[in-house]
Write a structure and sequence with these properties.
heterotrimer; A mainly alpha (104); B mainly alpha (159); C mainly alpha (395); B: 159 residues; mainly alpha; Four Helix Bundle (Hemerythrin (Met), subunit A); 6 helices; 0% strand; C: mainly alpha; 14 helices; globular
Amino acid sequence: MTPTLQIFLIVSSALFCIGLLAALSRRHAIFILIGIEMMLAAANLNFIAFWRFSPEPHQPTGVMVAIFSIAIAAAEAAVGLALVISVYRHYRTTNVDQFDQLKG
Amino acid sequence: MSAAFVIISILTLAAALAAATLPKLMHAALSFAVAFVGLAAFFFLLGAEFVGLVQIFVYIGAVAVLIVFTILLTRRDVEKDRGFNWSGVVVAIAVFGGLIWAIFKTQSLSVAAPGMSVLTVKHIGEVLMTGYVWPLLCVGLLLTAALVGALILVMEEKR
Amino acid sequence: MSVAIDQIFVNGKRWLLSWLAGAPDWLVQVASSLINIFALLAVFLTLFALMSVLERKILGRIQNRYGPNRVGPFGLLQPIADGIKMLIKEDIVPVRADKIVHFLAPVLIAATAILALGIIPYGRNMTPFTIDGGILFFFAVGSTTELAVFMAGWGSNNKFSMLGAMRAIAQMISYELPLIITVLPVVMIVGSLAPDTIVAAQDGYAFGVVPRWFVLTPWGAAAFLLFFVSGLVESNRTPFDVPEGESEIVAGHMTEYSGFKYATFFMAEYIGMFAITGLAITLFLGGWHAPVRALEFVPSYIWFFAKLGALLFVYIWLRGTLPRTRVDQIMNFAWKFMLPMAFTCMVAAAVWHYAGRGLRGWLWSFVVIAVAYTALSIILDTRKKFASRTYRFAE
């Protein structure tokens, strides 16, 4: 069976939902970041799949968006991890259930 | 193409699931790296080789190393991630169901791949420097700002 | 006749593949890749074995003693004895070490080192795998080495291993930047990331005599020196072998590995060295081209391996001559000196191109590099300034 566009979209949405699972159900701050990175990567796969199956693939629009998205995801991971480290210095824990000083 | 596709998709989804559910921190971070290798293999399969190489370079060479370093710097001899919120699983499955329904309902998505000439790095370079030069400069500025910001966040405060 | 000797391996592979004449297309492709891989592994594992004994002999001669000379004529069969010793050693894994990570680390390091060898052109039409973004592939695979070093350090459950791994990663990440930025001038001038195109751009002779290698231009010479030093650091060789400094942290991230796994780390370091040297030859020293027109009858792969041997000799020479640098000296050198010089090389290459690629371009780019180097040496003058001494003599 040659993979059609639908198969690629199913795989990328599965990856997106696994990233969503990691972001919603883990209690460690770094894993929430891992989940977010996985969601970004699944969206990249979506862009490339749509570019490949589009009627004019000689215009590399999808590829450009994916390249910039990877660069921005790297910047966001760096800043997010720096945030985690500096929050850890203050609270001495990375369990997000304990960051509740603004609650109520 | 289809045998390779099946193997790569099983590898990627299994590694991603492992990254999302393994209790031991380091194992999850390393299976995250394996999931991105699988994703880069997908990009190669789709003919976007440059993006696949950039993905390996950036995600595995930089982001995975960052994550592993941060796990090291923020542990107090706690090796496992305690606590797992099961309602997240329900939400994720619901979102997956909704996306699958949307994909199958759209008729125009069951097309086969059209023929394509190979996308060379030269072509990507030309397009980057002519059509996409503004986003390129903005991304450069953004990366510099992120670098400086991350450094400031992590610097020890002088007492 | 010389063309036949030059293409002997290419024709040999074609003859082997002709046995599969009627097979389906994918089978021929898989067979072709397998032949490439086997040839590559055979050549480089033999070279690794040879180099391990030659290094010890050359180091011995530098230190005014014989190297190993008991096993075989001039000690050249020493690798066999070493191999047998490594294989029959007991494989000790610490009890509380993470078994999977501890096992996979040497495998991953060796795999990435061997992968990087695949895109280098070893002779005319003799590149194992032609990828359009070959140089990017090399660096992507090289950056995966850091993760493997970290896995080795963490999987051993040993504070010294962890410290050694952190130092190794800090060193490797810092020097990846000059490594990549010094490659950029070459890619800019040639206009392609494929190693075959870069080698082909260094074809021909200027004024009929001087080969058009990039190392003979000012920006190319500076970039080659910077690339060479960064390659030394990336392969953790003396004078930058802080990660495996035996007098400081035992063996760093390789402390808890014994027997065959240690041999795998050792092999990965040497093959990484071959890969970086091979890339330096491809980018700056003209690949498999001959230096003089009169010697062009010598086969292209002989030239490549001769240049490889010369550069490896320089590596061994440096190891025998220079002492180890301190970790903070290494970091300062990378960020304060090599990075600005690498950017200067890029500017100098652009100046060379736009001033015409002849004598005028040569002189202007030399001026750019000289100005930048002098400015950096004055600004970074880190010699401590001592106060004037007062002498007190017994009166």
